[in-house]
C-alpha cells in the first residue's frame, strides 16, 4: 500500500511537470489492463518478475498515460462505475479466489484457464458492484449523516 500511494503521488507530480504528450484511447488502456489480468504467469520466479515489473513500471506507466485521456460520455459512466466498485473488488477478489481454489481442490482444475479467468473477473466485478451498491453506499450515507449534524434553521 505504501509503494502504490507514493507511486501515485509521483505520477501526479510527473504529469504536472511534464504532461503526457500521447493521446491514447481509454479503450486501448482498458484492454491492456484486462490482458494483464488474464495473462500472468502463475508460479515461481516468472510470477515474481511479472509482479515486480507490473508494480514498478507497467501500472505507473498506465496511470501516466491515463492522465492524457478524456473518455466520452459512455466511457465516463463506465470508468465512474469502475472507480466506485474498485475498493469492493480489492476487498473481495482474494476471498473469492480462495473459494475458487477450494473448489478446484475438491473437483479438479478444468481446462480452459483463460475462459475461467475471464469468468472469475466478471463474477468478482458483479459481487463488488452488489457490495458497493447495497452495502457501501448506504453505510457511507449513514456515516456522513452521523458526522455532519444538520444545522439549525436561521431565525
Please give the structural blueprint.
Layout: H1 2-17, H2 26-38, H3 44-66, H4 73-107, H5 113-147
Helix pairs in contact: 1-3, 4-5
Report on this structure.
This protein is an all-alpha fold and 155 residues long. The chain is 79% helix and 0% strand. It is built from five helices and no strands. It is globular and about 50 Å long.
The helix content, as a percent range, equals: over 70%
Order of helices and strands: HHHHH
Strands, total number: 0
Q: pLDDT under 50 segments (min length 5)?
A: none
Number of helices: 5
Keywords:
155 residues, globular, 0% strand, 79% helix, mainly alpha, single chain
Quick overview of this protein structure:
Helices cover 79% and strands 0% of the residues. It is mostly helical and 155 residues long.
